[in-house]
Amino acid sequence: MKTNQAVKLMTYTPEPEKIVAAAAKLCYSPSGATELMSNLEPDNVQHFVQLLTKMGHESPIEHISFTFSVEGVSRSLTHQLVRHRIASYSQKSQRYVREGGFAYVVPPAIEESKQTRELFVEAMEEQQRIYDKLADHLSDRYEQKHLEAGMSEKKARSAAEKKAIEDARYVLPNACETKIVVTMNARSLLHFFNIRCCNRAQWEIRELATEMLKQAKQVAPSIFLMAGPDCVYGNCGEGSMSCGKAEEVANYFKNI
Q1: Which helix (H) or strand (E) is 179 found in, with range?
Q2: How many CB atoms sit inside 10 A of residue 42's CB?
Q3: How far apart are CA 49 and CA 29, in angstroms?
Q4: How many CB atoms neighbour CB 6 within 10 A?
Q5: How many CA atoms lie within 13 A of 149 on its CB side?
Q6: Cβ of 29: how many Cβ atoms within 10 Å?
Q7: What are the structural domain ranges in the chain?
């Protein structure tokens, strides 16, 4: 079953830009952060945070975080995502959740051709068949062993199912759909957007990063004013590997 990407900003630090402004001003003021917060007006916050952003003064933005719910993405994507280590992740477990009739992500290049699409779907269906067969055989074997060891029938069945899908998951493809909750502070998000919004990033994680940026920018526009790949407000950092579309990419991210 083919699936589509779904991203939602679940929650974020309240008054994120005001907190960043207060934290930054604290460094140069005898007043406390609470007092500074109470005296900050929206226009002053916007001006000050944009100034920090343009200066590249990023340490104060570590005080705010954003939590996203991500669904309809592949295991291939999450293998890349969790390389961003200054973050928190909670992902659907293939050890505890049986992948019966698993959904999967189809790359656009495969989707656009009838021949490649049919081959891909055939492979997914075959992987499902083998996974189910393995899980059933392993479950029966484990259950029998647990019963022989004196375990009750109910406990034996439950324990066997867990062990079975734990091993059967080794045949599941990278295309297998997964769900994950991601929390990053704003500084980590800026780095994530810088790397993964680039045209050099793989298409799926680039789509994810771009949608996350759109939603984060709605609630903290000054923080993410210059967010995106290097070419948005500077030179492409990819060198000879550049996509050659720096101006087009920059214009897109400046206007989202």
Answers
A1: strand 177-185
A2: 9
A3: 16
A4: 12
A5: 12
A6: 12
A7: 6-91+177-254, 108-171
What confidence tens digit (pLDDT) does each residue in 192-234 have?
Answer: 999 999 999 999 999 999 999 999 999 999 999 999 999 988 8
Q: What is the pTM of this model?
A: 0.91
**Catalytic one among 169, 196, 200, 206?**
196
What is the third-level CATH fold of 6-91+177-254?
A: Gyrase A; domain 2 (3.30.1360)
Residue 85 catalytic? no
Q: Quick one: pLDDT at residue 220?
A: 96
CA distances from 24 to 32, 48, 63, 183 (A): 11, 9, 10, 22
Name which of 24, 8, 7 is nearest 16 in CA terms: 24
Q: Does 112 or 35 have the greater pLDDT score?
A: 112
| Kind of pairing between the strands at 88-91 and 6-12 | unpaired
Is residue 239 over pLDDT 70?
yes
Tokens 């293939």, residue?
Answer: 94
DSSP conformation letters of 12-81: E-SSHHHHHHHHHHHTT-SS-HHHHHHT--HHHHHHHHHHHHHHT--GGGGG-EEEEEEEEEEHHHHHHH
pLDDT tens for 12-56 read 999 999 989 888 877 766 767 677 677 777 778 888 888 888 887
pLDDT number for residue 25:
76
Contact 41, 17 (CB under 8 A): no
Cα distance between residue 68 and residue 100, in whole Å: 26
